[in-house]
Amino acid sequence: MRIPTHSLVLVADGRKMLLYRNSGTADAPSLDVIAGEEQPNPPDRAQKSDLAGRRPAIGSPGQASVEEADFHRQAEESFARQIAERLNGMALRNDLPSLVIVAPNRVLGALRPQLHQETRTQIIAEVEKDLTGHPTDRIAQLLMEREEAG
Description:
Elements: E1 8-12, E2 16-22, E3 31-38, H1 44-47, E4 54-56, E5 63-65, H2 71-92, E6 99-103, H3 105-111, H4 117-120, E7 123-128, H5 136-149
Parallel strand pairs: 1-6, 6-7
Antiparallel strand pairs: 1-2, 2-3, 4-5
């Protein structure tokens, strides 16, 4: 994929986000980190102290279980909202020339509804991958290879 000069590349998962700016060319990108954020989000089992609750069943004898809250998932969705707020602010200030979003499907799903229309118009590509653990040069290489495969 070609990434125009000055475009932003967001690489995120449910707990970490890196925002890069392409200071290279579309054919030879050079990604520079301009922002990063990480939040602690241990597995759901580590965030719970009790088992799911029970309540009296309505209309029948006995008890019914109460659906458990997924605190890990809730933290991921909250983090996606924070990312969207940052991107929306940039777009509304005209600081978002074009944007590539790289994130796992669940994060994209939480992020999309939070994006302002102005932000959505700046998105040139979405890549459903988790690349947060990759070095910057490898991210650029993988994005360039994506065009060749497609």
